[in-house]
TrEMBL record:
It comes from Castanea mollissima. The keyword Electron transport does not apply. The keyword Ribonucleoprotein does not apply. The active site is at 148, 367. This is Peptidase A1 domain-containing protein. It comes from the Eukaryota. Belongs to the peptidase A1 family.
Length: 489
């Protein structure tokens, strides 16, 4: 997530995993308890923690009680919370696009081993992103981080002085002074002044050894302040061993304001940039990472994994993998794709081609940190009109649930009668989400068309609900993304 003094750039993911890393590159130190065998452990895995997971529930309920806030209880409250967060996030993305042009960061990749991580969703408790557990420091301290494909920086709530009271509302805080591998970046260093400028390092440098500081702010007034450091991150391998990644760039966030970070111990940066965790970890595991997002209404204890490395046989695929080009340098940090059009019921909608052209203010990104799918107005209106006609047999609610434009009484709803929506990508690839990903449950006996509109010109976003029940594999060597229907089990 890139940050500016006025706003955060960007989720939480998602995909997964919106802790940015990468100072001096990731070093594969060693596995635990013994030396790593490349032949038997070719993946890194992080679990994608579902929102109903006991450890996530405990974390969020604890924080809510400390803040004396009521967590959203009803499904409608949860959805409206997602809408508010999505709206703020889109404003951040729009701001970021206006500030930065293409910046090629391509480099040679080394084919090596891989890793895998579990992801959880916090939608029931006011946080729409997916979460992963990550261990930082020596000895390792465990945290629940938002997995965000739009974030560059990985950071955790942190204190450099155990005796100071801080972060009282957070059960898990990284105690930097207890980690033997924690080392701050000096503010006078070239790393701070030049290489970390894109992550909004501050120019203030009272002494040569003062730590390099950052100050990130959201457009909603939330902010995160801290210092950059190198430390060790411990990850799980697919052979049940663990691996230490040394010299990982981690933000030590010592102060926050606002609600933007509710429910998380920090952010795992999965955006495309030189300093993101995704880019650096993928370097060591063949240049690939993938995720498969479970249904946000899935039952308790269902989770899946963010995988770095080959995904063969990792997911139950329900169809062939299709590939389309990733436009990695068109919208820095984000995973942009070339959309050619949208069809509903095999009828291509009349949408101006400029809507999909990033060079004239349009374009589309895949974003795990945005929950709903957001369409620029010239695309939004044709989609809503076509789907609205197909749902006319159901009683439309006289007062729609704002900001949803079209909601209806879902008693007797038969999704097989809804025409299928298809995103047509370049190279002939077709993405056909399940009906439940765009005709969404908002309240008992109430469904709505799950799209939000933004004014033109504007960026369209395929959010994590639309991405559900599909495997998404990001190949950063070939600059392509592959996707296929999957049960994500």
């Amino acid at each position: 997530m890139k940050w500016r003094p006025v706003l955060l750039s960007p989720l939480l993911f998602i995909f997964l995993v919106s802790i940015s890393t990468g100072f001096h590159g990731l070093v594969l130190s060693h596995t635990i308890p013994e030396e790593h065998d490349h032949q038997h452990s070719n993946k890194m895995r992080l679990e994608l923690i579902h929102r109903h997971s006991p450890q996530l529930i405990g974390k969020l309920v604890h924080e809510a009680s400390n803040n004396n806030n009521n967590m959203p209880k009803s499904q409608q409250e949860r959805i409206l919370e997602l809408v508010l967060r999505d709206t703020t996030r889109h404003r951040m993305i729009s701001h970021k696009r206006g500030q930065y042009g293409p910046n090629s960061r391509r480099k040679n990749w080394e084919l090596n081993t891989s890793i895998e991580m579990p992801m959880h969703s916090g939608a029931d408790y006011g946080a729409g992103e997916y979460f992963v557990q990550v261990r930082v420091g020596r000895p390792a301290q465990q945290f629940m981080l938002v997995a965000d494909t739009g974030s560059d920086l990985t950071w955790v709530y942190c204190t450099r002085n155990t005796h100071k009271r801080g972060h009282r509302n957070h059960r898990r805080v990284f105690h930097a002074d207890r980690s033997s591998s924690f080392e701050t970046i000096p503010c006078l260093s070239n790393m701070c002044k030049v290489q970390l400028a894109d992550l909004f390092s501050l120019t203030t440098c009272p002494t040569p050894i003062t730590p390099c500081a950052y100050d990130f702010s959201y457009v909603d007034g939330s902010a995160a302040l801290g210092v950059f450091a190198n430390d060790t991150v411990t990850v799980d391998l697919t052979n049940d061993r663990k691996m230490m990644l040394d010299n990982v760039l981690v933000g030590c966030t010592e102060s926050t304001q606002g609600d933007a970070f509710k429910g998380a111990d920090g952010v795992l940066g999965l955006g495309y940039s030189k300093f993101s965790f995704a880019t650096k970890a993928a370097e060591k595991f063949g240049g690939k990472f993938s995720y498969c997002l479970v249904d946000h209404l899935s039952p308790m204890n269902i989770s899946n994994y963010l995988i770095f490395g080959c995904t063969k046989n990792e997911h139950s695929l329900l169809g062939n993998v299709r590939y389309t080009k990733l436009l990695l340098n068109v919208m820095p940090s984000f995973y942009a794709v070339k959309v050619m059009g949208i069809s509903i019921g095999d009828v291509m909608l009349r949408i101006p081609f400029e809507v999909w052209n990033a060079n004239v203010g349009g374009g589309t990104i895949l974003d795990s940190g945005t929950s709903l799918t957001i369409l620029a107005e010239p695309a939004y209106k044709p989609v809503m009109n076509a789907l609205g006609i197909s749902l006319s047999q159901y009683k439309r609610l006289s007062s729609d649930i704002k900001p949803f434009e079209y909601c209806f009484n879902s008693t007797g709803f038969d999704q097989s009668l809804v025409p299928r929506l298809v995103f047509h990508f370049a190279d002939g690839a077709r993405f056909e989400p399940q009906v439940k990903s765009y005709v969404i449950d908002v309240a008992p006996q109430t469904k709505c068309l799950g799209f939000l509109s933004v004014r033109w010109p504007g960026t369209s976003i395929i959010g994590n609900i639309m991405q559900q029940n599909h495997l998404w594999e990001f190949d950063l060597v070939r600059s392509v993304v592959g996707f296929a229907p999957s049960s994500c089990t």
